[in-house]
Amino acid sequence: MAGTRVxxxxxxxxxxxxxxxVIERWLTTKLPLGARPHVSELEGPPTNGSSSVxxxxxxxxxxxxxxxxxxxxxxxxxxxxxxxxxxxxxIPAQFKVMAKVRELSKVPxxxxxxxxxxxxxxxxxxxxxxxxxxxVPPDVLPxxxxxNWLYDATRDQQRRVQHSSVQVLADIHAIPDVERHFSFLNGxxxxxxxxxxxxxxxxxxxxxxxxxxxxxxxxxxxLEHLEASWPEAGGQPVLSWGDARIGNxxxxxxxxxxxxxxxxxxxxxxxxxxxxxVYFHRFFEDLVQNMGHTGGMPHFLRRDDVVAxxxxxxxxxxxxxxxxxxxxxxxxxxxELRTGFRRVQFGEAQMPEDRDDLILHxxxxxxxxxxxxxxxx
Length: 377
Fold this sequence. Notes:
Layout: H1 16-27, E1 38-39, E2 53-63, E3 66-76, H2 91-104, E4 112-116, E5 126-130, H3 155-173, H4 178-181, H5 194-210, H6 217-228, E6 238-240, E7 249-252, E8 255-259, E9 266-268, H7 270-290, H8 303-314, H9 321-345, H10 362-370
Antiparallel strand pairs: 1-2, 2-3, 3-5, 4-5, 6-9, 7-8
Helix pairs in contact: 3-8, 5-9, 6-9, 6-10, 7-9, 9-10
């Protein structure tokens, strides 16, 4: 894997001190008259997150003569000058998805408290939700590298994490009448099926936007392969979480306590989430192997185990999983292309001669295209 890098990336140039002052003043418009809110210093998440700007803070105020406090998290759309990962950040849609998922399911979503769609307040729209104290599997370094709570857990505890996480997928996909409740997702995109609309908006259009600087022959090979082998996925479309991976779940006692990051949500076949969920763990496992590290969790989140558990929970037989895993890897390749450009933009890397070397899982994609990847696992 050429040029492999695993480190925390620059994601924002936002000044947190001035942001704190604005949020403190803004809260006076959301709380009762005379609340006089006070906000702690802002902090970023220690391990995860590379797209929206995430801030954590405490707030104190007076309400009906009583002192109140809350631990809060803010999600701010990135400034266009910070070379964002995605072309658009629909913070109001994220807020609405979180509220609807809380209303319509038992999925543990943090309580969304306030939405500010007016970009004049902080320069970009943002939302504030209640913070959940729990553990997250780290992305930097990724959890299979060791030295973290999940890697050090017993096999039984890891199985509980796996089972609870697959249950999250099943519960999200059980939400009824999604095309009515979530009609604002994938809206206005051409395509005869939910999968076509998802693919056009979140893969093809996304790649064309990301490739304005330079194109990727490897990604284009993947797109050609996906088109040539288009699946006949059946069943009713479901709410697709989008970034369906354990790095976006907070765990308490090895059970899912909060499901985060809904900015990639869409409507489509169940296999979109199942494929992403399986692939993303494999991405981390491949990093471990390609860097010659002694860690790894090959027993954890195995594709056959995840699919079998999901099918038992839902009664849905997953189909075309090779295709959906390649879909996930291709979409992630576009993200890697964009974040690779970002590393260059912030002076953290040099632009390689072969632009495909910006894709950390290049060898995985090449093996998937050759039909040899999953045979080796």
